[in-house]
Design brief:
Layout lengths: L1 H60 L2 H12 L14 H15 L8 H8 L6
Length: about 130
């Protein structure tokens, strides 16, 4: 009876290992592919929205009113007899620099994140 247990336990462990290797790794790849498709669909929606906004801007640029507005706002053009001026606030420039530093810091990840990424296939993305 003891010899049977000694033979059955390693065989059972080999079967379990084979099941894990044959089922876990393709499952990870399927999850990664599904996430890639979802990301591509999200990117397509974003590009479509950007395209619609650009088409609306293009249509607006065809009007003389929009051309005048852009010339005044971005290039500082004025009509004869008008006086142009620019107001600069030093506080806004300092605030922009502080925001850039805050955005550059990565979020800390928990110690188990690489394990979860491996099991769910997130490590295959990128």
């Amino acid at each position: 009876m003891r010899k049977k247990v000694v033979v059955i336990v390693p065989v059972l462990l080999l079967v379990v290992a084979a099941v894990v290797f044959t089922n876990l790794f393709p499952f990870r790849q399927m999850l990664a592919a599904d996430r890639a498709v979802a990301g591509a669909q999200q990117e397509l929606a974003s590009v479509t929205a950007t395209n619609a906004a650009l088409e609306a801007e293009l249509a607006a640029l065809q009007t003389p009113e929009e051309t005048e507005r852009l010339a005044r706002d971005e290039l500082g053009y004025v009509f004869p007899g008008e006086q142009g001026f620019v107001v600069v606030s030093p506080d806004e420039e300092a605030a922009v620099g502080e925001e850039a530093v805050d955005e550059a810091l990565p979020e800390p990840r928990p110690w188990y994140a690489p394990i979860v990424d491996f099991l769910t296939g997130r490590d295959l993305e990128g």
